[in-house]
Amino acid sequence: MSSEKLQKVLARAGLGSRREMERRIEAGRVQVNGHQARLGDRVEPGVRIHMDGRPVSAAALAPTDRRVIVYHKPTGELVTRSDPEGRRTVFRRLPPLKSGRWLAVGRLDINTSGLLLLTTDGELANRLAHPSYRLIRDYAVRLFGQIDEATLRRLIEGVTLEDGPAAFESIRPLDSGEAANSWYRVRLREGKNRLVRRLWESQGVQVSRLMRVQYGPIEMPAGLREGQMKTLTAGEVRHLVELVNLGDGDGGDRARKRQRRSSPGPGGGRPGRERKRHG
Predict the structure, then answer these.
(1) Domains of the chain, with CATH numbers?
(2) Is 41 an annotated catalytic residue?
(3) Which of 93, 117, 139, 209 could pair with 105 as two cysteines, CB 3.0-4.6 Å apart?
(4) What are the start and end residues of every segment in region (Disordered) (predicted)?
(5) Interacting residues of 27 by C-beta distance below 8 A, sequence separation 6+
(6) Residues 261-266: contacts with CB within 8 Å, 24+ apart?
(7) Alpha carbon distance 152, 254 (integer Å)
(8) Cβ–Cβ contacts within 10 Å for residue 277, how many?
(9) Using one digit for the tens of pLDDT, what is the confidence trace for 233-274?
(10) Angle 154-265-277 from CA coordinates, rounded to 5°
(11) H or E element at residue 69
């Protein structure tokens, strides 16, 4: 059996990025077969690994084919493996795996529905959700009442929330806006907790429904109903892998550094931001 770098195995298991796993190994937080691991160690399938004294499950460590599915999450489901209150989770619906396990790319809160990506590759999940790659997140949002142009302009230019500045990259109306409830499609490039709702609430606007419709290049498949899923093709998975520079070396980390230097920071006044209400 072929061996693999320890940090690669841990990242694929969904425990964090390769860089983070390297730091944990260097800090003496990882043990392999009862011995403290060292950076540069290679491991074979079947080894026993502990992190911070806790065993890493065999299912998480098992090598598996890289797969990605799109799941149409209904409201009322949690993006967690188990819930102490016994509420429904997305993982109960997913197809069983012979080895490995499904890992969610980011989260959607219990009251948000829509597109959720899940993969068997923890490093891919980590990179797709990492803010340095600035992948788009598009949402369809239904708002109570009519929204004026000044409100839209403030949300594009940027507002200050309790955890710092934030803004929508674009806001596009999906209806005439004359009814009691109006629909918009909004775009973000970060995944902070409840960010769409908090941005609208900062302007005193009530969100009555929220659904994610796109993540990176992947859009909600037409006709995919709540609770249903679709497996991405090999070409679509390859595109995601290339998008986040996932390889065996540290090319992805170098790419993140380049992207951080060239990408504008959060908040108002960012170069290249769209100020648009349509199109």
Answers:
(1) 4-61 (3.10.290.10), 68-132+219-246 (3.30.70.580)
(2) no
(3) 117
(4) 248-279
(5) none
(6) 263/132, 263/134, 266/158, 266/164, 266/165, 266/166, 266/167, 266/190
(7) 36
(8) 16
(9) 999 999 999 999 986 544 444 444 444 443 333 333 333 344
(10) 30
(11) strand 68-73
